[in-house]
Design a protein that fits this description.
Layout (H helix, E strand, L loop, with lengths): L1 E6 L19 H16 L6 E4 L3 H14 L5 E3 L9 H8 L7 E6 L3 H10 L14 E7 L6 E8 L1 H7 L1
Parallel strand pairs: 1-4, 2-3, 2-4
Antiparallel strand pairs: 1-5, 5-6
Helix pairs in contact: 1-2, 1-5
Length: 164
Amino acid sequence: MEVYFLRHGIAEDLSPTRKDADRALTEEGVKRMKKAALGMRRLELTFDAVVSSPLVRARQTAELAIAGLGHKGTLRFSDALTPEAEFGDLLNLLSEFPENARVLVVGHQPSMADFVSRLISPKGEARIEVKKGSLTRVDLDGDGGVPRGILQWAMPSRILRALS
């Protein structure tokens, strides 16, 4: 399985409702994510599934990625991708997809960095930085229990935007 971890773009510090879940992408965040999505398209990335955290900034990021890529599938939401989600939540989510699937997951810190780190190093000793708008690919070998991941690449948003 190929899993692509996309962290949401630049978001407002405080939403009008003062709820973290309602924080939206800023104008700059939208602009950058649109360009990053075009960079993803230039890389000819395609996905069998796109799953996002239900929080507004992640949902908006996923929608911009889908639009930029021309993805025809549906967007699914999962609490397994929220900031406070646990590694087991991610594993349960990924177990729903076939071993040969290409899945884009859109979420937040600190869970995104934790997920990538735990997949590529069983005890989580490897620490990967996952910046806003970045895309990280991890290939999973799902032979039985906890999948082992191989970090294929990590691409900062600025590189994705430069490809557009």
